[in-house]
Amino acid sequence: MVSVDEPEEDDEEDEVYEFAEEETEQESNPIPPTEDEVREHNLGTAENPRPIFLSALLGEEERAEYMRLLQEFSDVFAWSYAEMPGLDPEVAMHRQHIREDAKPVKQPQRKFHPAIMEKIEKEVQKLKDVGFIREEQHPD
């Protein structure tokens, strides 16, 4: 005998199946991201620029309110790695949990387009300069 208060198992399975079917349809027809035009604004000075980007679709009043808010709290944003000296290593440090008896294997260097490689090297050097990363030396 089936209680009136409890749905039958078949009903629950049907609901789960319908839900999964809806999710699959949404995944197969993703909505493309909007590509609103943005405008660059400077929260800093000419000597020390602090660029931000706001939608060009904002009205003048909204833009002014965002600028006021961002300027008020500009001290919480970092525009360079040097402005983040107080990061707790327990939160920000990557650790690899490797078995003690495992031998490190050097991977071949990945190839990038020369224009991109130059940007990568500059970014890595910035991280090294402020002590965010260091080059690890292996015995091999």
Describe the protein.
With about 140 residues, the chain is mainly α. The chain has a domain of about 45 residues. About 40% of the residues lie in helices and about 5% in strands. It contains four helices and two strands, in the order H-E-E-H-H-H. It has a two-stranded antiparallel ribbon. Strand 1 and strand 2 form a beta hairpin. The longest helix has 20 residues. It is elongated and about 60 Å long. The chain starts with 8 loop residues before the first helix and ends in an 11-residue tail after the last helix. The mean pLDDT is about 75.
Quick rundown:
This protein is mostly helical.
Write the layout of secondary structure elements.
Blueprint: H1 9-28, E1 38-42, E2 51-55, H2 60-72, H3 89-92, H4 114-129
Antiparallel strand pairs: 1-2
Unreliable parts: none
* Helical segment count: 4
Please provide the ordered H/E string of secondary-structure elements: HEEHHH
Shape: elongated
**Largest sheet entry:** 2 strands, antiparallel
Radius of gyration: 26 Å
Helix content: 25-40%
Structural class: mainly alpha
> How much strand?
5-15%
Mean of residue pLDDT?
77
DSSP strand tally: 2
- What's the end-to-end separation, in Å? 73 Å
- What order do the strands of the largest sheet run in, or round the barrel if closed? 1-2
